[in-house]
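Sequence and structure are no longer studied apart. To make this concrete, we show below a single chain and its fold as tokens.
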Amino acid sequence: MSPGKLRRLDPVRLLTLAGALALAVMVLWTMIDIGARLAFNKPLHGTLDLVEVTLVLVAFLALPECFRRDEQIKVDLFDTMVRRRTLAAMRLAGEIATLAFLVLLAVTLIQPLADAYRFGDQKPDLPVPIFLLLLAIELALAVSVFVVLGRAVGQVRAFPRAAAGTADPHPPALHSSNGAAS
């Protein structure tokens, strides 16, 4: 990349950095609260609210990066038992189901977001508007939808190559080039 060009804006990376910042705030606030409680018997006001808010931000803002890196929890029980084409179809079905679930979450969050904005809901101890928290979650879900959609399109494009491949990705131990057992 030439120095004159601006780096492309990466919303996934920005959300991940915001999540990391929320984690740092949560850890530092908790450490200060514990120190103040032990040293002066004066805990900080609003610690529970701050931890709740930052914990939600950490989890949801990291979601798009998790999908982009394909690091969500998976059970690969059938990966070695099915053919390559079947495995590609199962992975595509998983991406489509994930996409549908994310869209459902994003759509159902719209009404609570509007209500929290309209009524001015805030956390009890800290003046953190609930609608800002829900807006961050909605943004993370929308970015996640685009990430998973891109992954699904990539799998659809790669699907014929997976089906046309003749080599078995998990060859049995008895197959070798000279016919001898390995």
Observations:
- Residues 13-164 form one domain.
- Residues 170-182 have pLDDT under 50 and may be disordered.
